[in-house]
Amino acid sequence: MTPKIELHLHLEGAAPPAFIRGLAAEKKIDLTGVFDARGHYAFRDFGHFLQVYEAATEVLQTPDDYRRLTRAVLEQSAENGVIYTEAFLSPDFCGGRDLAAWRDYLAAIREGAAEVPEVEMRGIVTCIRHFGPDSARQTALCAAETAGDFVTGFGMGGNEAIGSQGDFAWAFDCAREAGLGLTTHAGEFGGPESVRQALDDLRVTRIGHGVRAIEDDALVDRLAEDGIVLEVCPGSNVVLGLYPDIRRHPIERLRARGVALTVSTDDPPFFHTTMEAEYAALNAAFDWDESLFADIARTAAQAAFCDATTRQRLLDRLDA
Ligand SMILES: [Zn+2]
């Protein structure tokens, strides 16, 4: 199996449905409406997706739940040939942004990660845009206080329709000063201007999605020239209706224009995908072959928020 590096994965959003159902049964939590008849996560659109996501997340209540979640998620990554993954971690869901609680959750997540040695994991502490800038400040402080060999990045997810990227500049400045790598969701539901704002106002080096940059030629040139790396999640974009199918997805056009890009699954069980499925779809749609996938993995290793020794180890494994 091709060794893969995944840079855009929401820990809770990667929770296998069976794992969430099992935990809900243990805790006697009613999850009516969260799953469809086949046991998949059920949602109509992005707004509803966020609601279902938060309902499913409610069964994750203790640090040990997160240890088990991390293990379950990384076992799936390992099955897909992933050797390194960066997962978005949310102090909002892990202790309500309280620093002491966050430290307990983080220790448990690291324990879960250590139980799956096939996959090396790093955490990107992520604020949630629709919770607002004040919550983001608290999240950034949690990130800064725990920055180190495991927490290596800071990001923002959530509903792009709320506020602007610049509203969150304080949180990103705080994270930058703590030495964390920076990424934010943009150019998914927001247009090219949201990508520009992310670059100008938050000074990120990676963009979560960013694919709608394709609507603005000058912006595409800027991404290519500045070496901004896109965390592209084609399956997610298709399921959430950005593009009618993978053939109409701009990933190949962005690549042809010289934009550095990587491939990830975002919230894989929600979008009925896996890293293997993404690779297979790209191969079928655009004829991407092993050497191109190797380039993608090397780009991801170069863009990973990890130390130089880890990066070299990843590159060596990819070249082996
Ligand atoms: Zn995402």
How is this structure best described in words?
The model has no long low-confidence stretch (mean pLDDT 96). This protein has a single domain (4-313), classed as TIM Barrel. It has helices at residues 17-27, 46-57, 63-79, 99-114, 133-146, 169-177, 192-202, 217-226, 234-239, 251-256, 275-286, 290-303, 308-319, and strands at 4-10, 82-89, 120-128, 151-157, 181-186, 206-209, 229-232, 260-263. The longest helix has 17 residues, at 63-79. The two termini are 13 Å apart. The chain contains 13 helices and 8 strands. 47% of the residues lie in helices and 15% in strands. With 320 residues, the protein is α/β, with parallel strands linked by helices. The chain binds zinc ion. Keywords: Hydrolase, Metal-binding, Zinc. GO terms for molecular function: deaminase activity; hydrolase activity, acting on carbon-nitrogen (but not peptide) bonds, in cyclic amidines; metal ion binding. It holds the Pfam family A_deaminase.
